[in-house]
Queue: 2 jobs
Job 1
Amino acid sequence: MLTLRTLLRPSRRVHAHCDIPCGVYDPEQARIEAESCLRIIEKYETSDDKVFRARCLHVKEERAELVKHHLDVLWHDYFKPEHLDKFPDLHETFWKATKQASKVKQTVDAGAARELLSMIDRIDEMWKATGGPEKTRVNGRPG
Amino acid sequence: MSGWRGPARPLLLLLGTAAALFAASRALRRIDAVEVEGASMAPSLLPGDRLLVESWTYARRAPRAGEVVLVTDPRSPSRELIKRVAAVDGRHLDLRGDAPASSTDSRHFGRLPVAAVRWRVALRYWPPRRFGGLPAARPSEPLDLEPLGGEPACTAFEALIAGGEQG
């Protein structure tokens, strides 16, 4: 028999989702993925193996996407409006760095990958200058 | 049987018709009932809240800022998220949880195409004491919500749904 209860029974669960807000941030995460991109490009250039080269392209695109993701998380979640006073070029820096990561994703240009590394290093300086290692890493950043 | 001949007859017919229409709408996926999991929409929505959602609005027009919508999780397509539309920018939506400090939303997975959204939240029907529509915008101050399990305000309705097979 049709009851109010069956009529109103939820068909599914919907998620008011939150990744655990752990508060751990470090530009190193983006840098390691960007270093992978550079090394993959170097291996790509020295290989004649078609299959290997195809794998290189595939993995490099994944890694470059991860660079963008890690930079976005730092940009949105770690950096706060007060940091802008100290670094007025913060948005510009992130915007250029994520654009550079797109370039690394699209090309096999080792120079572009090196440029991306130096941009991440600039972000790393801002992270350190705002107390990142002490505030966001457990027991500070490992040396 | 006297009810069928007495003054209650039109009322029963009306209720029966409403129930049949509702069941048909659910079968046609124009209306559905869902349960909230997670706390990123607090204080507007709490875990365990049950909602009626409808799909005809976004068949006609794009979502608007302030509306609470269901959307497939772009990072985990088997999961459906519930978030509020913070802004509409052309054909893209910026989604936020009402509890931004503990919400994974467009700040993490980016803006989503308008076409990704089908269901709009119409109202909350459970728990009965918080029955009704949702606030049209994210509450700017945290609401001082009474703890769950406060005084019952709609015991008859509550019993009707929770109690089982009276219908």
Job 2
Amino acid sequence: MSQQRVGFAGAAGALIARDLRLALRRPGDTLQPLGFFLVVTTLFPLSLDPQLSLLRDIAPAALWVGALLSSLLALDLLFREDAQDGTLEQLALCGLPFQGLLLAKTAVHWLLTGLPLVLIAPLAATALGAPYEAMPGILAALLLGSVALSLIGAVGAGLTMSLKRNGSLLALLVLPLAVPVLIFGARATALAIAGEPLAAPLYLLAAIAVLAATLAPLALAAAVRIGLE
Amino acid sequence: MNELTADNLQLWRGEQHVLRGVCIAVAGGQCLQVSGANGTGKTTLLRALCGLVPLEQGRICWRGRDIAEDPAAFHTELNYLGHDNGLKADLTAAENLRYAAALRRRVRPQDIADALVRTGMAEAAGQLLRRLSAGQRRRVALARLTLTGGSLWVLDEPGSNLDTSGQHLLLELIDEHLRVGGAAVVATHQTLDLAGAQLRSMSLQ
């Protein structure tokens, strides 16, 4: 039977296709964090004095706090169901690199929750008075930041997946690690809105994303294995 | 030679000493039935045999090699069916089998159809799993078992929720698996009426 074995790429591809199909069957689950982000960020201009300068001052904070909380909200979807219905242990027992499969799952999660957030961010940024010229910078920062947040959050989701009420613990675990992303992301956004060069915080965000992509799979596999015991 | 041996397995769960020096040996063509009252550690033993639960002491060998040395090679030959079916409720029976098989071996669409026919679930192929009854879902899980193969089957209460014909089907599948030289470890309270196969049994206390 050995000649019929599948390679890692084929298995990961099937896993990605499966998760995308599942998300399509229940679009509400993935849309909810996105709606949360949009609501939070657009409520700021409604509750503040309609002065452009004031809005622009708080825009970075509103965008990034919204993105961070929305990513936390989305994390619950990542492993919980798979742990409950036994598909996660099948994944652990299929003989293929577990880290890679979990990374594939995290990639789908980013594709479904992180990327759409980046794509609707211009809408929220416009509501917060960000000028049109600032959009490329804001998008670049959110793109890098959302990748890092998905990877960091996945480790927390893996650690807490077997707990009954895991929301607050998950936040407690993930938020401290996510703070650097928030700081540099908000800084990059502020610089973009002010029309100043924002390469420095973008590089730092990219470094965090790369570091997370390197280390998170290791921690993720270990965390999920503990959860499966 | 397909052979699974475990030697002096020790495992604590908090204050509870669950596995106390368990030793087992199952060879190809043999089925080991694990029985014991509720809470005696049947599921823990089975999960430990799969390598899901790390041991405090003892070792498990597949074909004479410690499974901790090369878990990936062991897992490619292992097929585990636990309490949970390992199927997604929002996928149809056929989709579930397709994605489950994709993790293990190349299968043709015809193989999936055949597995569903074999387990009497051909008509449910296009139905979402959440619309099926618990017994029907178990049958789909059995279809997965036959489809994905593997020379060592580890089954935890495989007969749960199955009707009489389902129980017969289960026995047939195990029997076929043993005939081609496969090994099986089955935790169940039912009497395994295996024809032509060597049944071994052990009881946990």
